[in-house]
Amino acid sequence: MSDQPIIELKNIDVIFKEPEREVRAVDDVQLSINKGDIFGIVGYSGAGKSTLVRVINLLQRPTNQAAVVKVNGADLLKLNAKELRTKRRKIGMIFQHFNLMNALTIADNVDFALKKSGLSKVERQQRVAELLELVGLADKSHDYPSQLSGGQKQRVGIARALANRPDILISDEATSALDPKTTASILGLLADLNRKLGLTIVLITHEMDAVKQICNRVAVMDAGKVIEEGDLLQVFSQPRAELTKDFIDTTTHIQSSLAVVEQQAIVQNLQPGEVLVQLGYVGAATDQPLITTLYKQFNVSANILFGNLEILQDTPVGQLLVVLSGTPKETQQALRFMQENDVQVTVLKSGDKGGN
Amino acid sequence: MLNFLNQVMPNVVENWSGDTGMVTGIWQTLYMTFWTTLIGGLIGLALGVALVIYDEQGIMANKAVYSILDKFVNVFRSIPFIILLSVVFPITQFIVGTTIGPKGALVPLIIGTAPFYARQVQNTLVQIDPGVIESAEALGYGPWTIITKVYLREGLPDLIRTSVLTIISIIGLTAMAGAVGAGGLGYIAVSKGYQRYQNDITIVATLLILVIVFIIQGLGDLWAKKIDHR
């Protein structure tokens, strides 16, 4: 992962004119994706994700004059049709419904991508065999797509997308039609390709789980706009937008558990000196025996009601719903201590009269 | 054997060979069907592909071109064939130099077939998954490759099926053309059989048409099934 942008989108608008109204599918988006990134774009359907990624290879042209689409330094909007086609071969793309040709065998589907590669017939055969080996389908080369499972079809799609040794792979909801186990194996394959080939991957999805598993950067889209963007860890541990929080909660379940936690007797009847807090911590903060320290140093006991721990890019990210109890003064000291030690503390409910 | 045939269908035996005989009729029907299929088919295919790629959702979307092609096809499809047969005489005379016989029937047959086949081709090709077309565009292919390697390849099984349908309808049209002077089995069935009360000729000519239809249908189905991997 270097800091050199391989994809730069500036001032991107895509407006679809319909007889009755205008639809702003993409609304003034700026996006910069670095070489080697696995960049996740999340959003609900209709948020404009698919339209936005199609701008990268100009399957969808921006509708405004000020737009700039730079891939590998080349300004794609300034190219003629033939030059653009050459560039497109260096941008692989995989799709939700795989989009394989039913009339062709698996090998021929992959070979289809090599028609303009300039390779000889023998070289093409070798390349196809190599690619099918890479995606683990060497034994299926003479089968037809209808004989394969969804996961296998997507592997063929990946082999085809990689045929011309692209620098970038765009994944348009590539795992959305697959079951969880197959999804995990396809995501594993993508992460593998990212490491082995240095492939930059742009992954759009409505599943935060997929992003969590392999992305290092993430952007959240809503109504055509990018409403939040950053490193996965940062966005995950300190989301700003409500929508981002919703998405994160689809995998951590913290917010949805809160309602249940609040019904519990201990939370309903908080005494003075008792507080319900949400603790969030990333990486190093988890190494310290936090709960023990609270008890030893401040005489404050912690009752854990709900917890979620994620390992994101080998870094633990934790969220806890905890009732702390001590004297009001001790509890305040404990809260301050945690804040000073990079734990995010949100007091959700306090037993003190008049709040804290 | 010949005696038996002579008893059952005396007129057929008598009119088997010769300039206006059954054998000539078969050849004339096959001649008209073949050339109409070939030339009308190619024109229809080109028109059908054009309708798909210039469509609003097509790879070369162009409203004006589409609209012109669409209206052209509609107009020529709407003219009843029997009227077309006589109306295009001047054009026929100009192109093939005669307005009678199988050759004279070719021009109206082709004009009658091409727009019909164009619609069939269009209806077949628009059913191809747009995602497959998009993936070919993403692989950096232009319209020509997409037409020849994706549309026509992916649509081939259904194209064969609609072609069979079109060929059978062409055979029907040749019979109609036959009734107004083009020759062929249709002419024999109507002019030599029906109008002269030689029922055996009508029946045999009809059966021969059926045999041709069944053979084409059977071969087409077999071929389509063999290459269909959906």
Automatic annotation (TrEMBL), chain A:
Domain of life: Bacteria
Keyword Chaperone carried by entry: no
Domain ABC transporter residues, every copy: 9-248
Pfam family, one: NIL
Keywords: Amino-acid transport, ATP-binding, Cell membrane, Membrane, Nucleotide-binding, Translocase, Transport
A GO BP annotation: amino acid transport
GO molecular function: ATP binding; ATP hydrolysis activity
InterPro entries recorded: AAA+_ATPase, ABC_transporter-like_ATP-bd, ABC_transporter-like_CS, ACT-like_dom_sf, MetN_ABC, MetN_ABC_transporter-like, NIL_domain, P-loop_NTPase
Signal peptide residues on this chain, from the entry's feature table: none
Name the record gives this protein: ABC-type metal ion transport system, ATPase component
Automatic annotation (TrEMBL), chain B:
GO cellular component, one term: plasma membrane
Gene3D superfamilies per the UniProt record, alphabetical: MetI-like
Domain ABC transmembrane type-1: 26-220
PROSITE patterns, per the entry: ABC_TM1 (PS50928)
UniProt key word Ligase: no
GO biological process per UniProt: D-methionine transmembrane transport
Membrane topology field: Multi-pass membrane protein
Primary location class: membrane
Transmembrane segments: 32-54, 75-96, 164-189, 201-220
Subcellular location: Cell membrane
InterPro entries on file: AA_ABC_Transporter_Permease, MetI-like, MetI-like_sf
UniProt keyword annotation of Transport present: yes
Alphabetic keyword roster: Cell membrane, Membrane, Transmembrane, Transmembrane helix, Transport
Pfam families: BPD_transp_1
Domain of life assignment: Bacteria
Family membership: Belongs to the binding-protein-dependent transport system permease family. CysTW subfamily.
PANTHER family from the UniProt entry: ABC TRANSPORTER PERMEASE (PTHR30450), D-METHIONINE TRANSPORT SYSTEM PERMEASE PROTEIN METI-RELATED (PTHR30450:SF1)
Protein name in the entry: Metal ion ABC transporter permease
Record organism: Lapidilactobacillus dextrinicus DSM 20335
